[in-house]
Amino acid sequence: MSINNYIIKISKKHPNKEITKIIEYAQEKGWIVKKSNGHAWGILYCPYNDIKCRAGKHCKTSIWSTPTDSQYFAKHLKRIIDKCNYIEENKDELL
For FRET with 31, which of 38, 41, 46, 83 sits at 20 to 30 Å CA-CA? Predict the structure, then answer.
């Protein structure tokens, strides 16, 4: 099953408000959030699954539950979202 076939809604927000804002930003850009078990609070998945994008797999990144520096981690997540290969190559079509 492709991740594009379903939407996951997480009712519980991340405990850090800066990271919650970035998660909402990612969702506005089409990224999907999946709740995780273990050290990560969740996982962000890029919905485009382009062959050029990070070894031909979904761009994905873990959302840590308690990062050491939450401001830095929020900026890190935003960079990953903004540097998505699909968005960069197709930004004219998306506007």
Answer: 38
Assigned domain for 3 exists? no
Three-state SS for the chain is CCHHHCCCCCCCCCCCHHHHHHHHHHHHCCCEEEECCCCEEEEEECCCCCCCCCCCCCCEEEEECCCCCHHHHHHHHHHHHHCCHHHHHHHHHHC
37, part of any domain: yes
In whole angstroms, what is the distance from residue 90 CA to residue 70 CA? 30
Question: Which of these ranges, 7-11, 31-35, 56-60, has the smallest mean pLDDT?
Answer: 7-11
Q: How many structural domains are present in the chain?
A: 1
Whether the pLDDT of residue 7 is over 60: the answer is no
Entry pTM: 0.73
In a domain, 56, yes or no: yes
